[in-house]
Design brief:
Number of domains: 1
Helix content: over 70%
Largest sheet: none
Distance between the termini: 50 Å
Shape: elongated
Oligomer: single chain
Order of helices and strands: HHHHHH
Radius of gyration: 17 Å
Length: 165
């Protein structure tokens, strides 16, 4: 299937709304999990754990990337290639990702947060496949997110082993 260009009459308002929602959810999760950076620093972590300051920089950039991906996919759907599953999977993975810090940092349920992270990876891969089929650029913009949630899941697993053993 050949990809069409996104309309020249881009709806910048829709893009802005998507960015505000995604980045806003991350901001809200941060507020509810205040002190998580300090908590992260005292956890026993594997050698490959990045400093929290790097993760604080990466996440907003990656969330911007998936926001743009969602916008491109939705814009493509307006042109006739409608795919509810892609949007559904996107909403599910964003919701799960919003819940993860609460389960990990507030409840300290590392095993459950690891299982949740596997669901995040699954729904993110499903989202990416749908996005790639609907609008290739949208799918490609999801790839940094897949890398980051996979890294986070592996890190979560090792933190679980190192701190609950």
């Amino acid at each position: 299937m050949k990809n069409k260009k996104v309309s020249k009459n881009n709806d910048w308002g829709t893009l802005l709304i998507i960015i505000v929602i995604i980045e806003g959810l991350a901001f809200i999760a941060n507020i509810f999990n205040k002190g998580s950076g300090r908590y992260y620093e005292i956890l026993r972590k594997p050698f490959f754990a990045l400093p929290s300051v790097i993760l604080i920089i990466f996440w907003p950039v990656v969330l911007l990337s998936i926001s743009i991906a969602a916008y491109l996919f939705i814009s493509k759907n307006r042109e006739g290639v409608y795919n509810r599953r892609g949007v559904f999977y996107f909403i599910v993975q964003v919701t799960l990702n919003f819940l993860w810090p609460f389960i990990f940092f507030r409840l300290n349920l590392y095993g459950i947060s690891f299982l949740l992270s596997l669901l995040i990876i699954l729904t993110t891969v499903l989202t990416t496949i749908k996005f790639l089929k609907g609008y290739k650029a949208a799918g490609l913009l999801m790839l940094p997110y897949i890398i980051l949630v996979t890294y986070s899941s592996i890190l979560n697993y090792y933190i679980w082993l190192l701190n609950e053993a």
